[in-house]
Amino acid sequence: MTRTRSVVLALALAGTAALPLSIATAPVANAxxxxxxxxxxxxxxxxxYSTHPFAxxxxxxxxxxxxxxxxxxxxxxxxxxxxxGVLLEGGRADKYYSSVSGSWGFQAGAQSFGYAVFLMNSRxxxxxxxxxxxxxxxxxxxxxxxxGAAKNLSTSTLKDDAYAFIFDQQGLMLSVSIEGxxxxxxxx
Length: 188
Fold this sequence. Notes:
The protein has helices spanning 3-25, 34-51, 53-59, 122-130, 147-152; strands spanning 64-89, 92-119, 134-135, 142-144, 162-172, 182-186. It is of the alpha+beta class and 188 residues long. Strands 1, 2, 3, 4, 5 and 6 form a 6-stranded mixed beta sheet that branches.
């Protein structure tokens, strides 16, 4: 293979690999203001609490709640998702984060959803604070709570570092997952 072909192939592969990132970061230009993000996060929590009553009970025991009110996900073989969120400690907005993920495989469509991560102990809050981007699935244990899991949980059986709820799904995409999502602090 000639040097030119090698360079072209490397650039093509780099471009293909960068596609999920470019899709995922496209909404950055339209980022919400701090006031809008705070309002959207509070509205999202109220919506979550009305559809998942256990989340409301969990909020009373959580050290902090990381709320991403609107994640936009799109893909056609390669995909990406992006959204911004708020860390609530003691009921007030404390810090701001972005949520970015990329994926590849059988996928087509677009959707939006929100998710909230209830950080149950100081260790989980500290990990989020000191890590240079937290990848869900690495670090503190995160349990994604669905209808079935919520029925088996009670405030006395909570033993994991964090519990995540996905809510308000809209659009056409085969599945939603936050596994592999990278959460990074942003300045506001």
